[in-house]
Amino acid sequence: MSRFISALAVALAATSSLAAEIPTNGLKEIPALGLGTWLSDRDKVDHAVEYALDNGYNHIDAAWIYRNEDQTGRGIAASELSRKDIWITSKLWNSFHRPSEVEAAIKTSISRLGVDYLDLYLIHWPVAFVPDEGTKLDKKTSIIDTWRALEDLVRANLTRHIGISNFAKSDVEEVLAVCEICPYAHEFETHPYLQQQDFIDWHAEVGVKVIAYSPLANTNPIYRRDAPPLLEDPYWKELAARKNATVAQAAIAWGFQRGTVVIPKSSHEKYIDENRDAAGIRFSKDEMADIAKHDRKIRMSNPSKNWGVQLFADLDDHLELEDETVGEL
Ligand SMILES: NC(=O)c1ccc[n+]([C@@H]2O[C@H](COP(=O)([O-])OP(=O)(O)OC[C@H]3O[C@@H](n4cnc5c(N)ncnc54)[C@H](OP(=O)(O)O)[C@@H]3O)[C@@H](O)[C@H]2O)c1
Predict the structure, then answer these.
(1) In this structure, which topology does domain 35-216+258-279 adopt according to CATH?
(2) Where does the secretion signal sit in this chain (predicted)?
């Protein structure tokens, strides 16, 4: 009997060290609208998240590097929605690409967000840094080494899905060629000023969903100013007025209509409501074709120079770095 009890105790101890079960009745697919949290002030993001979740949103886009996952988690905990009805994405930072670092990194995000599991965990950039050495490139860790470690996170019930972010087409192909658990989604910059329609169509062909970040183009205040602010752009103002909408709503609705998931960030209730209400706006075929002609092919987010790596090499508006400064990915 005592042997039975101690065997039972060992079994229970082993079970309790496993990740929690992921509910099978959670959201089937990623919701089309999410709330972004990059640059969301630490003292505002909890309210923004709670407000959004209590007013029609069910998807939060977070990341370790945003340094506000704990406050984002407070907003999630305070909301009326239950965990299974919320889609939560987070991202693996470049310093944790070594397979030995990956599980601890997701567990940190999970714990800060105050949940038991994620819905989607992305490799934030196809660039590995040496742990604890700033942006020093880790040339020994490949994208595939890191991808294999992400696959194990799904097997360990730490995340329902895995994906990628900021990958060039050739990087995506590299993962698709070998994946056992394949990318659910690719999150990258795309908006009216950087449409990348061919790249988006290609993702549909290979079965990877696209999450459109910075959907309001240069509205993010840290982005470049050598294009008119999207919200002041006469073409978009006229188009939005025709729909009785704001420019932000028109840009978000256009993102929905071309099949991308859209994740605008705001910490203002007014904008959070406004962006949610983009859902009913539709464009005709001719309007969609005309919007395509107004692509400026301007990329706002590109750390290639700072990191000394050639990012987005086969995509619109990449930087050509001098050969000697380019790191191998
Ligand atoms: N994977 C990646 O590498 C990556 C990179 C960039 C972004 N992202 C994700 O994508 C999210 C969105 O991108 P983003 O933050 O760069 O840019 P964004 O959502 O296109 O723009 C955010 C800016 O627009 C303002 N805004 C939002 N709605 C508005 C409205 N209806 N009218 C007027 N202004 C409005 C916000 O103001 P307030 O905040 O002052 O309300 C904020 O300054 C990020 O928060 C992050 O979650 C991911």
Answers:
(1) TIM Barrel (3.20.20)
(2) 1-19
CB 297 within 8 A of CB 194: yes
Domain boundaries, the chain: 35-216+258-279
Residue closest via CA to ligand 1's atom 42 equals 220
What average pLDDT does range 246-252 have in this prediction? 98
Q: Is the CB of 277 under 6 A from ligand 1?
A: no
Closest ligand 1 atom to the C-alpha of 274? 31
CB of residue 302 inside a 6 A radius of ligand 1: no
Catalytic one of 51, 57, 66, 184 = 66
- 20-72 tens-digit pLDDT: 689 999 999 999 999 999 999 999 999 999 999 999 999 999 999 999 999 99
Is the CB–ligand 1 distance for residue 219 below 6 Å? yes
193 is catalytic: no
| Residue 124 assigned as binding residue | yes
pLDDT in tens, 134-152: 999 999 999 999 999 999 9
What is the C-alpha separation between 33 and 108, in angstroms, rounded?
25
User: Is the C-beta atom of 87 inside 6 A of ligand 1?
Assistant: no
